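Lecture notes, part 5. Sequence design as translation. It can be helpful to think of inverse folding as translation between two languages: the language of shapes and the language of residues. The source text, in structure tokens, appears below.
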């Protein structure tokens, strides 16, 4: 006995309409809250608070042990290090933010571009940051309210992330030095 191929059964009009409705539903984008514009940020703790840097500013995370101390440097300068052939200044982020203390000793340096002509700097950090999404509407509101280099972004559930504007933070420190 030779097996015969199974021929598809004819589709009824009702089945055809059902398949067309399903195909139309699949073509539509599902309504999700995820379509909201977001800012990707690198989040990390400083003391008991949560801070973040815009992810596009982050270039690398390197061990703190790569830093060479510089005698007689300002209090916010940890030292210098070589990164991809460039000499970088390593700074204390806690000191730049006004003396907030670390919960743990910093073990990582974040190599960042503060948007000041391509010159990179390194900031100390307790641990490697985690990527987070911040709703752009909330970020814009927080930046409009901010008077300094840190914008307090209030997320749903009473969670606050302090978003750091690197350019304003570094410029502020430079202007304080000029005025001293």
């Amino acid at each position: 006995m030779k097996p015969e191929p199974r021929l598809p059964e004819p589709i009824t009009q009702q089945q055809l309409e059902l398949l067309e409705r399903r195909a139309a539903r699949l073509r539509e984008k599902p309504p999700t809250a995820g379509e909201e514009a977001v800012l990707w940020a690198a989040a990390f703790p400083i003391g008991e608070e949560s801070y973040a840097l815009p992810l596009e500013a982050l270039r690398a995370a390197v061990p703190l042990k790569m830093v060479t101390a510089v005698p007689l440097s300002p209090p916010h300068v940890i030292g210098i290090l070589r990164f991809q052939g460039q000499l970088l200044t390593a700074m204390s982020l806690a000191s730049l933010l006004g003396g907030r203390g670390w919960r743990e000793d910093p073990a990582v340096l974040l190599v960042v571009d503060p948007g000041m002509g391509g010159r990179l700097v390194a900031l100390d950090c307790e641990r490697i940051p985690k990527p987070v999404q911040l709703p752009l509407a909330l970020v814009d509101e927080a930046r409009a309210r901010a008077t300094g280099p840190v914008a307090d972004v209030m997320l749903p559930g009473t969670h606050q992330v302090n978003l750091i504007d690197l350019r304003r933070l570094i410029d502020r420190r430079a202007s304080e030095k000029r005025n001293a």
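The translated text above is only one of many valid answers, since several sequences can fold into similar shapes. Strands lie at 38-46, 49-54, 58-63, 77-83, 86-91, 108-112, 121-125, 130-135, 150-155, 159-164.
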